[in-house]
């Protein structure tokens, strides 16, 4: 009999979805109308042995309590801050995620956002579309990247991939995270505040957790300054969003380029109304190739678990 899997969200890869159906008995929560989910889940929960979730959705202690036989939570994404790891540890439930396979695409988006902010691409697109260019209105110059400092908060796989891309544009790179990384030639700042003070662009690539909640606060934004730009492709929880909006409104921060937000998909109207922001809808890994690779790693972890093999990417 196939193991029963509760699927919180679909993979964009049809091949991945076909593999899930081939190897498991899947219960698709995402297909159920919101008003019917509670009753539906009660009817299927008793035999569910695995949960397939995402980094954004995760799984709560209350949800786990509804699943008495669950043995593994497979997260389609890197972040596990939305997974109640205390609850999974207490019950000995394995947790996996999908590191590595999305590094390049997320780093690519970080540089895309940085470049879009630096060269004011959304504003220039609007300038052309509205006929301002044809009307002979002046265009304000932007600033070159060469020689500017890209500070990177969080220097794991993605942070290091951002560094390589920034260096290719002639930028100087520094990083900060509490633990120094051995074997890298990028200088480490003494603190996040010191990194912001030294940076023209601050790219946030640290994991979301209680320890990193609102670490990019008003003081850090003030240190980045009126010519500085914040780029966030990590988690919205790392940034004090109210302080960010205030800094952007008062122009004590130059710009922000954001792929993640505190309460996704709800983005504050104040933020959406600003002209010194670039906004994307949490799409760092949203390419055909990467979403397939992520989904494949989820399938491979589930198959390994139920065949008694070591997990490929377990979360400690």
Automatic annotation (TrEMBL):
GO CC term, one of those recorded: cytosol
Signal peptide: none
Entries under Gene3D superfamilies matching the protein: NAD(P)-binding Rossmann-like Domain
D-isomer specific 2-hydroxyacid dehydrogenase catalytic domain: residues covered: 13-315
SUPFAM superfamilies for the chain: Formate/glycerate dehydrogenase catalytic domain-like, NAD(P)-binding Rossmann-fold domains
GO MF entry, a single one: hydroxypyruvate reductase [NAD(P)H] activity
Bilayer-spanning residue ranges: none
Domain of life of the source: Bacteria
All residue ranges annotated as the D-isomer specific 2-hydroxyacid dehydrogenase NAD-binding domain in the record: 111-284
Membrane recorded as keyword: no
Keyword RNA-binding: no
Keywords recorded for this protein, A-Z: NAD, NADP, Oxidoreductase
PANTHER family to which the protein is assigned, alphabetical: 2-HYDROXYACID DEHYDROGENASE YGL185C-RELATED, 2-HYDROXYACID DEHYDROGENASE-RELATED
Family named by the database record: Belongs to the D-isomer specific 2-hydroxyacid dehydrogenase family.
Protein name: 2-hydroxyacid dehydrogenase
Annotated organism of origin: Duganella flavida
């Amino acid at each position: 009999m196939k193991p029963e899997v509760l699927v919180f969200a679909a993979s964009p890869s049809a091949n991945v979805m076909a593999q899930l159906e081939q190897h498991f008995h899947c219960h698709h929560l995402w297909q159920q109308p919101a008003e019917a989910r509670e009753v539906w889940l009660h009817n299927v929960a008793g035999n569910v042995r695995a949960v397939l979730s995402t980094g954004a959705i995760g799984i709560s202690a209350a949800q786990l309590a509804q699943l008495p036989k669950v043995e593994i939570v497979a997260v389609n994404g890197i972040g596990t801050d939305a997974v109640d790891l205390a609850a999974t540890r207490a019950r000995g439930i394995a947790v996996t995620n999908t590191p590595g396979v999305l590094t390049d695409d997320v780093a690519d988006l970080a540089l895309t956002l940085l470049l879009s902010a630096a060269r004011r691409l959304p504003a220039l697109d609007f300038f052309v579309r509205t006929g301002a260019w044809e009307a002979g209105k002046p265009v304000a110059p932007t600033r070159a990247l060469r020689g500017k400092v890209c500070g990177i908060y969080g220097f794991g796989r993605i942070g290091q991939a951002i560094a390589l891309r920034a260096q290719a544009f002639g930028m100087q790179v520094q990083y900060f995270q509490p633990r120094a990384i051995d074997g890298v030639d990028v200088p480490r700042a003494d603190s996040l505040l010191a990194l912001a003070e030294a940076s023209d662009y601050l790219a946030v690539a640290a994991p979301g957790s209680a320890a990193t909640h609102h670490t990019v606060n008003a003081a850090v934004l003030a240190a980045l300054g009126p010519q500085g730009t914040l780029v966030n492709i990590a988690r919205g929880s790392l940034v004090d969003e109210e302080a960010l909006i205030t800094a952007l409104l008062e122009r004590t921060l130059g710009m922000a380029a954001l792929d993640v937000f505190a309460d996704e998909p709800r983005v504050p109207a104040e933020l959406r109304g600003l002209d010194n922001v670039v906004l994307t809808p949490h799409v760092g890994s949203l390419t055909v190739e990467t979403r397939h690779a992520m989904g494949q790693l989820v399938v491979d972890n589930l198959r390994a678990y139920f065949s008694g093999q070591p997990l490929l990417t377990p979360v400690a």
